[in-house]
Amino acid sequence: MLIECIPNVSEGRRTEIVAAMAAALRGIPGVRLLDHSSDPSHNRSVFTMAGDATGIERAVLALFERAVADIDLRGHSGEHPRLGAVDVVPFVPIEGVTMADCVALARKVGAEVAARFQIPVYLYEEASANPARKNLEDIRRGEFEGLAKKMATAGWTPDFGPATPHPSAGAAVIGARMPLIAYNINLATDRLDVAKKIAAAIRHSSGGYRFVKAMGITLEDRGIVQVSMNLTNFEKTPIFRVFETVKREAARYGVAILESEIVGLVPAAALMSTAEFYLQIEGFKPAQVLENKLRTEN
Amino acid sequence: MLIECIPNVSEGRRTEIVAAMAAALRGIPGVRLLDHSSDPSHNRSVFTMAGDATGIERAVLALFERAVADIDLRGHSGEHPRLGAVDVVPFVPIEGVTMADCVALARKVGAEVAARFQIPVYLYEEASANPARKNLEDIRRGEFEGLAKKMATAGWTPDFGPATPHPSAGAAVIGARMPLIAYNINLATDRLDVAKKIAAAIRHSSGGYRFVKAMGITLEDRGIVQVSMNLTNFEKTPIFRVFETVKREAARYGVAILESEIVGLVPAAALMSTAEFYLQIEGFKPAQVLENKLRTEN
User: Fold this and answer.
1) Which value does ipTM take for this structure?
2) HEC states along B196-218?
């Protein structure tokens, strides 16, 4: 049984805080911390872990314990929108688990986080029963600063927990979804409007690809801009198609792609099909990859 | 201990012959037949297997047994140059084996093939002690038809076996080398001169990349031409660089790349670095591939 869990927390600058969180996660039996990365511009960190349901549940609670103690959103600023100290917690079925299992886990953990830490919890994606509260962006809109007002309006009672924000930790969004690729493309320009226009062009919400979420942001420390994306179904909207579109759109403004970046983990298949696309490989089978062959039985 | 062995045989049309060879290889304990593919234009098949030294040795001898019985080069024609019924047998160190181990195995198997089947054997690549007889192309030049004459000249006494060709099976080239990628690029044209010029441009021998062997051939059944290559060090001369060069050279003649093809197995790293190149991914680590992470210990 293998569930992947990729909590995003609103701390990307104080490395000792992030290190303490990583250490807490590593201490949980049945769970492996596969990766973690921090972005000082975003002021956000992403942890990637995998394990069984029991271990993952314990790990998420341990993470909330640290985050509630160490992160105070009232003093927080960063390029990435955020609603909570622990901002979002997705569960992803990897092996021997169904999406229904992950939805059930999201609801269980959501209820427990709310009870233990007095944090309002919203269920999202596959764990949400309400289409208006399915998409992370819809739930997060208004961010931490607008949360109290939002929670006072109709339709925004949380799925679990108090009817008002946690004063320092905000709210948390917990759910279940398919694997996504967190993919950023950095443009060789400081023109934020270019990044924002391109993000609008490629994301589903404003007319772009079905399985792309995107936003344009500034990387202050580098003097450049970034199209920051989530590819929510890399099989149907592949990474190379998104790259090529961003490249062409940037050329419209005389802007080149400087580099791109994969945040956290990426399924091998996404990179394989990228190589297949650019090399125009006909009839390629994953079984042709030496390491795959060596691992499978004859 | 894992040795990879990729024998190439001069039969790519009679599927029952090839199937019998595959069956013989599958029957050897300690050996796994990872892949086999046949090319009717080349009239050649490639088997990819992996195992321990003892199993691999038995498998190669079993293959020669079938090939000597079923392939008569006196009636053989095909696009790919060939010297023997079993044309070339490389041993490749994969895990827990050194190149020296593979060289020793090549010599042992070479001697045994010569003795058992009365086939002249030439050692090549790392197993060869003679620079004039290190490169497969140099040994194979003249092919089966020119072999008797070549063997009568100075410097072409085989490393093992009789001083004259086997009447129907020719000679065999056996050796040890690093992993290579057998990579073909099909051009959208029937102009063989274009394929030959491009092959000459990219292969090391005529001024091209250090770790590329290439030839231009016709695919009669499809009415197109192909640049057929071996990439002998995909880390130093990567597949994407070769692709891009072929593409640019073909454009000189108004010719497009139709498709490409990987024959047999390819190391995952070659495809990963291809994706990294085209997506301009900065700071990418193989550990970011989900499947890699799940397989390694924390």
Assistant:
1) 0.80
2) HHHHHHHCHHHCCCCCEEEEEEE
